[in-house]
Specification:
Blueprint lengths: L6 H13 L23 E5 L8 E12 L7 E7 L3 E8 L13 E10 L4 E9 L2 E7 L9 H4 L2 E7 L12 E10 L6 E5 L5 E5 L2 E13 L11 E9 L6
Antiparallel strand pairs: 1-4, 2-3, 2-5, 3-4, 5-6, 6-7, 7-13, 8-9, 9-10, 9-12, 11-12, 12-13
Length: about 240
């Protein structure tokens, strides 16, 4: 005669079923949440000027107005550029980030929109003489921002040991988004799964890192017209305390 399962066993079974309901390993390396879902895609726009043939719009000038990103409202920045006049930049993120911007400051900005056969990639980089202020990249069909846009920061991925249990060819798995500042022994870095945030210290500044989507395919033998890795992120230099 079969004996009924003990209550403790039933509870444990329910936990396992719930945890694996996503079809993936619940926890990967270093506590990675393999079930974490990517956040909503960021959006960036430019009004008043268009990108060049390479898909890039470079601006430099004084901040005429600045509205911080808030729930339900896009962040906006108006730059007085010598060539294009007043240009408005807008960004919408899945979570608000404080940005070290002020009216009257001198900044440089690069808006990127690249259109490919299978999709587009958009990005925004706002900088001053001290380095990056705001970096946003939607990671669509390759990253829009180049190394020079990010410097002295770099963005990469690290395998979090997450594997889709369905064994679907070309399936996406959660990877750590790795943001590094500096080089060698002086380098600092943050590694997070999408949805988490972390702070990175460099050169007296604090950067808040928000991974929005960090996934990759581990089976490169599978043909697909989509990228093998997705790195969507936002990085903002936080205002100094007391500002």
């Amino acid at each position: 005669m079969k004996m009924p399962l003990a209550l403790e066993s039933v509870a444990a079974l329910v936990v396992v079923l719930v945890a694996t309901g996503c079809g993936c390993t619940p926890t990967g390396e270093d506590g990675a949440d393999c079930a974490a879902e990517p956040l909503a895609n960021p959006k960036v726009e430019a009004e008043g000027a268009k990108p060049d043939g390479a898909g890039r719009l470079a601006l430099a000038g004084e901040v005429k107005s600045f509205t911080p990103l808030e729930d339900g409202k896009a962040g906006t920045l108006v730059i007085g550029d010598a060539t294009h006049g007043d240009v408005t930049l807008r960004w919408t993120l899945p979570a608000p980030l404080e940005v070290d911007l002020a009216i009257g400051a001198s900044v440089k900005a690069t808006y990127v929109r690249m259109q490919g056969f299978g999709g587009s990639a958009t990005g925004l980089a706002i900088r001053d003489d001290a380095g990056p202020i705001l970096l946003v990249d939607d990671g669509g069909y390759g990253n829009a921002l180049m190394a020079a846009d990010l410097a002295p920061l770099t963005v990469a991925q690290r395998d979090a040991g997450c594997r889709n249990r369905k064994n679907e060819p070309g399936s996406l798995n959660n990877f750590f988004l790795v943001v590094t500042a500096g080089e060698g022994d002086a380098a600092t870095k943050v590694e997070k799964i999408h949805g988490e945030t972390g702070d990175l210290e460099h050169g007296g500044a604090t950067y808040r890192v928000l991974p929005i989507k960090s996934t990759a395919r581990v089976d490169e033998k599978v043909w697909t017209d989509a990228p093998y890795e997705f790195k969507a992120f936002a990085i903002a230099r936080r205002p100094a305390k007391g500002d």
